[in-house]
Amino acid sequence: MADQQHLEHAPHSHVTPLYVYFTVFFALAIGTLLTWYASTIDLQEWNTPVALIIATIKAVLVILFFMHVKYSTRLTWVVVVASFLWLGVLFVLTFADYLTRGWLMK
Amino acid sequence: MSDLALGNEHHHHHPFLQHHFEDLGQQHEASTLGMWMFLCTEILFFGGILCAYWIYRVMYPEAWAVAAELQNKLYGGLNTIVLIISSLTMALAVRAAQVGSRMWQLGMLFATLIFGSVFLAVKGIEYSMHWHEGLFPGSHFTWHEHPAVAQKVQLFMCFYWGLTGLHALHMIIGAGLLLWIIGRAWRNDFGPEYYAPVEIMGLYWHFVDIVWIFLFPFLYLIHGVHHG
Predict the structure, then answer these.
(1) Which of A8, A38, A39, B220 is the most exposed place for a label (fewest CB within 10 A)?
(2) Do A79 and B95 touch (CB under 8 A)?
(3) Yes or no, beta carbons of A39 and B217 under 8 Å apart
């Protein structure tokens, strides 16, 4: 949706159209209502994944549009992606331990 | 490439261009990058606590579901909406600086400060309620509706007070930074050429919003198996 010519090394000048901010806002509000509603119904083992997926989508929307990462330099992208990569390492390695502790007993 | 041509156009020295940067564009990119480096440490800081939270949630799923039922979902949900609105007004404040509107900038920054304060006020009401319900960990913890899981509920409340407390601390720091940015916007420091501090303020504010986006379902909305 963004004007492509602004993406590459525009010094500091990408002005996001107002409708983008309002669309993202409404998506975030709907996501909040959805995550509340999803918690009131029994989805068996899917309640937690659904809550996580909605929260992740909301976070990505905020990062891309409110935090302007969509229009940022590649170096900024590297730092943002690296942040979540390390967060992933933290969780995956920790749970590779905790979730498998009972397996040896069986 | 085009930077050279751009640099030649600007013979005057912008008052906020620091001497070690080529131009305001480079300065802005350096500021943004530096802020993201800091936010990376913040993501891992909150991430570490959330990882501990998930370890215990996996170990004691029933206690976690019972404890989440003790939270005020209405206040939590209302606060989520309030924080999202404050993120919108913050984004609009950055945009107002980009297009050089001092009036909208001040209005949106002030609105962000107001919504942030509403969030903290609601949080304060919740804290007071939990305190009187005996849900503060330690010797004040007197809640024992379900004695079988009371100790684990207390553990959940450690995470609740710790996580929301650190989040509220970030909000208070954010409100202080907002006051400073409002002061500078009042002096008309920002415009299309130079608005990096407003942008950085926005990055911080939105990050704090993202933390809450995860805290709300993690602390308020756990669907308990036995609750149907």
Answers:
(1) A8
(2) no
(3) yes
Domain boundaries, chain A: 1-72, 73-106
**Cβ-contact A31, A54 below 8 angstroms:** yes
Provide the whole-model pTM: 0.90
Does A75 sit within 8 Å of B29, measured CB to CB? yes
Residues of A within 8 A of B35 (CB-CB) are none
The DSSP output letter for B14 is P
The answer to whether the CB of A98 falls within 8 A of the CB of B55 is yes
Distance from CA of A53 to the nearest CA of B (A): 10
Q: Tell me the chain A residues in contact with residue B73 when contact means C-beta distances shorter than 8 Å.
A: 36
Tokens 């995860």 sit on residue: B214
Q: What is the domain partition of chain B in residue ranges? A: 52-227
User: What tens digit of pLDDT does each residue of A55-90 get?
Assistant: 999 999 999 999 999 998 999 999 999 999 999 999
CB A11 within 8 A of CB B3: yes
Q: Which residues of B touch A43 (CB under 8 A)?
A: 223
Q: Which pLDDT band, with edges at 50, 70 and 90, does A3 fall under?
A: very low
Residues of chain B with pLDDT under 50: 1-2, 5, 8, 227-228
B52-227: what CATH class? mainly alpha
Q: Which two tokens stand for residue A4?
A: 């492509």
